[in-house]
Design brief:
Elements (H helix, E strand, L loop, with lengths): L1 E3 L1 H14 L4 H18 L6 E6 L3 H15 L3 E7 L7 H11 L4 E5 L13 E5 L11 H13 L3 E4 L21 E5 L2 E2 L8 H4 L1 E5 L15 E4 L1 H7 L14 E5 L6 H13 L4 E6 L4 H7 L4 E4 L17 E4 L9 H11 L4 E3 L1 H9 L12 E2 L3 H8 L5 H15 L2 E4 L5 E3 L5 E4 L11 H14 L4 H23 L6 H6 L1 H12 L1
Parallel strand pairs: 1-8, 2-3, 2-5, 3-4, 5-6, 6-7, 7-9, 10-19, 11-12, 11-14, 12-13, 14-15, 15-16, 16-17
Antiparallel strand pairs: 1-10, 17-18, 18-19
Length: 503
C-alpha cells in the first residue's frame, strides 16, 4: 500500500473526479457510506452518536455520516464548530440534506456551547482532516481538549483532528482517537511512534479512487505487505546444495555478551544460509561450539574482545556488531574491515556505537551495506533529531548521500534506500521490544545477503519476515511472554506463509 502526502491525496481525489467522472459530493458520499458500514460491522449500531464537524470537507463527511446513521435508527446529535468562515460547497450540500432529517444540529460559537458527553455515547470526530496545515488554537483547541476529557470512545474520520499528515505535531492539541477511519492509503503521520496515542487503531477504507493515478507520481513511501515480499522470495531448487545458499560470516560477541552472538548466528542459520562462521574472541569459543553445532567458529586475537578480523574475503555476506563491545581499539578494527571487505555487509549494535565515536568510518562502509539502528543509535551516528519525522527525513538523506541502506528500527521500521525509494514495514508487534530482537534481525539479513538476495531485497524481506515471525510468536506465546529467540523459532512459520502465498 502506498503512503502519500496530503497534497498527493488531494490530487488523487481531483484526478478521480476528473477522470471517473464523479462529482466531489458523491465521492464524499462513498466515503461516508464506507464509514457507516464499518460502524455496523463493529456493532456500534444502534447507538447514540455525537458528531463534531468543522466546515471543510472533513466536516462534510461528518454531516453525511450523521444523515446515514439517522436513517439506520441511531440517535444522532451534530455539533458544528463556528470559526467565522463559510463551509465548502460539499459541506453546504450535506448540511442542506441533513436539515431534511430529524438530526439535532448545534452550533459551537464559544466554550459555553460545548456539550456534555455521557460515557455511553460514541463521539465521531470530523473537525479537521488531512488538509490541516497548522497548529490548532483558540476555540478549536479548546474543543479538542473538551472532547478528550469527556469521551473514551472516539472515532476520527480521515485523521484525528489537530494531527498534521506530513509533519510533526508534538505539543499540539490533538483528538485522542480510539479508532481512525482513513481513506484509500496510509499517511506518513500513521507511521510515526510519536502519534500512536492519537490515532488509536487505524482502518483504511477503499473508496474507489482511480489507481491509475499512482502511476503518475512518486510515492512518499510504500507499506511492505505480503504481495510485495512474495515476489522477492526465491524457493529452493530441488538440485541445490549447501554451497548454493552461501557462506556467511558473523563478527559478534565479547565477554559477558556472547548471547548476542548466539542469537544472531541462530537466526542466520534459520534464514536459510548454506554455511556460517562466527568470529569471536577466545572467551566465546566453547560457548559457540556447544550452543550452535551447525556453525563453525573462528577464534580471533583477544580474550574478552575481538582484536583482529581475518579471512573474511571468501564470505558471500558479513554481519558485524551484536555484543562485540565498543572499546577504542574497535575503531581500527572496523577501519581495517571496511578496507578489506568490499561487499555489502550488515552493521548493527556495538558496531554502530563505534562508528558514532568516529564518524569518518561512515564514508568507508562498502556501498549498499545495511545499517540497522534503533532511534537512539541512529541519533548517535547521524545527529540528534527533534522528532520522528525529522529522523525519517535524515535517514532518507543519509541513505542517498552515503549509498547505504538504513533500517530505522521500530514498530513500523523504516527502510531508506540509496535510490530514494522508501518503505515502512507492516509486520511486528510490541512483544518484539525485547533484548536481542535486533541481533536476530542482523542474523536474518546476513543470511539473506549470503543466499544471493540483492541488498535491497534482503533488507525488505528480512525486516518483513523478522516481524512476521514475531507476530506468529506473539500469537502463540503472547506479546508479554515472548523473547528474542522465539522470533528465530518462528521463522519457519513465516517462511510457510511465503510458500503458501506463492502457491
Amino acid at each position: 500500500m502506498v503512503i502519500l502526502s496530503a497534497k498527493q491525496i488531494h490530487d488523487w481525489d481531483q484526478y478521480s473526479i476528473q477522470h471517473e467522472p464523479i462529482v466531489s459530493v458523491d465521492l464524499m458520499e462513498a466515503a461516508s457510506i464506507g464509514c457507516v458500514q464499518w460502524l455496523q460491522q463493529q456493532n456500534y449500531l444502534p447507538g447514540e452518536f455525537h458528531i463534531f464537524c468543522g466546515k471543510g470537507n472533513n466536516g462534510g463527511d461528518g454531516l453525511a455520516i450523521a444523515r446515514l446513521l439517522s436513517k439506520l435508527g441511531a440517535k444522532v446529535s451534530v455539533h458544528i464548530l463556528e470559526l467565522g468562515q463559510l463551509g465548502t460547497n460539499d459541506f453546504q450540500i450535506n448540511l442542506a440534506r441533513l436539515h431534511e432529517t430529524d438530526v439535532a444540529i448545534h452550533y459551537i460559537q464559544s466554550e459555553n456551547h460545548f456539550p456534555i458527553l455521557p460515557p455511553a455515547i460514541v463521539v465521531i470526530d470530523a473537525l479537521f482532516g488531512t488538509g490541516l496545515n497548522r497548529k490548532l488554537d483558540g476555540l478549536a483547541a479548546a474543543l479538542v481538549q473538551h472532547i478528550n476529557i469527556f469521551s473514551h470512545n472516539i472515532i476520527s474520520i480521515d485523521m484525528p483532528s489537530g494531527l498534521l499528515a506530513d509533519d510533526s505535531s508534538v505539543g499540539y492539541h490533538i483528538v485522542n482517537a480510539t479508532h481512525t477511519i482513513s481513506f484509500q492509503c496510509q499517511k506518513m503521520a500513521f507511521m510515526m511512534a510519536e502519534n500512536e496515542m492519537y490515532t488509536g487503531h487505524i482502518h483504511v477504507l477503499d473508496i474507489g479512487l482511480l489507481n491509475i493515478f499512482l502511476s503518475t507520481i512518486t510515492y512518499e513511501a510504500s507499506l511492505l505487505e505480503i504481495e510485495f515480499i512474495k515476489a522477492i522470495y526465491h524457493p529452493r531448487s530441488s538440485f541445490s546444495h549447501k554451497g548454493t545458499y552461501g557462506h556467511a560470516g558473523i563478527v559478534a560477541g565479547s565477554y559477558g555478551f556472547m548471547g548476542a552472538a548466539i542469537l544472531a548466528a541462530k537466526a542466520c542459520l534459520r534464514s536459510g544460509v548454506g554455511k556460517l562462521t562466527v568470529h569471536t574472541p577466545s572467551c566465546g569459543y566453547d560457548i559457540i561450539q556447544s550452543t550452535i553445532p551447525e556453525a563453525m567458529c573462528k577464534v580471533e586475537e583477544g580474550e574478552q574482545y575481538i582484536q583482529t578480523i581475518t579471512d573474511t574475503a571468501t564470505y558471500a555476506a558479513l554481519g558485524i556488531g551484536p555484543g562485540m563491545g565498543h572499546p577504542s581499539s574497535h575503531v581500527d578494527l572496523l577501519d581495517a574491515l571496511f578496507t578489506a571487505y568490499s561487499k555489502p555487509m550488515v552493521i548493527d549494535a556495538d558496531a554502530l556505537t563505534v562508528i558514532a565515536s568516529y564518524p569518518a568510518l561512515l564514508n568507508k562502509i562498502p556501498p549498499f551495506s545495511i545499517l540497522t539502528p534503533h532511534p537512539a543509535e541512529f541519533d548517535r551516528v547521524f545527529g540528534k533529531s527533534k522528532n520522528d519525522f525529522e529522523r525519517v527525513r535524515m535517514a532518507r538523506q543519509k541513505a542517498k548521500e552515503l549509498q547505504l541502506i538504513i533500517v530505522l528500527k521500530g514498530h513500523r521500521s523504516f527502510i531508506a534506500m540509496p535510490g530514494g525509494i522508501n518503505y515502512f514495514n507492516s509486520t511486528g508487534n510490541p512483544g518484539m521490544a525485547t533484548a536481542g530482537s535486533g541481533d536476530v534481525l542482523t542474523g536474518i539479513l546476513t543470511g539473506l545477503l549470503a543466499q544471493g538476495y540483492a541488498p535491497e531485497q534482503a533488507a525488505l524481506m528480512g525486516v518483513y519476515i523478522h516481524g512476521l515471525a514475531g507476530d506468529h510468536a506473539a500469537a502463540m506465546l503472547t506479546e508479554e511472554a515472548m523473547i528474542a529467540s522465539d522470533i528465530t523459532d518462528y521463522l519457519g512459520s513465516a517462511y510457510s506463509v511465503l510458500k503458501k502465498q506463492r502457491g
